[in-house]
């Protein structure tokens, strides 16, 4: 069971509970903080994926170079 199973009614209930706990004045601050956190998470994930792809290309290039050395 994951987040994809929550649905619209579940999201509405979560929003109402959040509104009750934090109040309407604090909600924009919480939303902004959540947005920044999500943005940073996406940025970090993208950087990790880019680094992983670069490393894969480098390893493949070294392997090809070694293969060429042994066959010649």
Fold blueprint:
Blueprint (H helix, E strand, L loop, with lengths): L6 H65 L1
Characterise the protein shown here.
The protein is mostly helical and 72 residues long. It has one domain (7-71). Helix content is 90%, strand content 0%. The longest helix has 65 residues, at 7-71. The mean pLDDT is 84.
**How many domains make up the coordinates?**
1
Q: Determine Rg (CA atoms, Å).
A: 23 Å
Mean pLDDT: 84
How far is the first residue's CA from the last residue's CA? Answer: 55 Å
> Low-confidence parts, pLDDT < 50 over ≥5 residues?
none
Oligomer: single chain
- Strand proportion, as a percent range, falls in under 5%
* Share of helix, binned: over 70%
Q: DSSP helix count? A: 1
Order of helices and strands: H
Structural class estimated from helices and strands: mainly alpha
Q: Profile the largest sheet.
A: none
What form results from the Cα inertia axes? Answer: elongated
Protein name: Sec-independent protein translocase protein TatA
Pfam family, one: TatA_B_E
GO molecular function: protein transmembrane transporter activity
Main location: membrane
């Amino acid at each position: 069971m994951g987040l994809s199973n929550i649905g619209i009614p579940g999201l509405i209930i979560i929003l109402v509970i959040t509104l009750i706990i934090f109040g309407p004045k604090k909600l924009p601050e919480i939303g902004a903080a959540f947005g920044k956190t999500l943005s940073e998470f996406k940025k970090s994930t993208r950087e990790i994926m880019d680094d992983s792809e670069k490393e894969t290309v480098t390893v493949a290039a070294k392997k090809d170079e070694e293969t060429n050395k042994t066959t010649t």
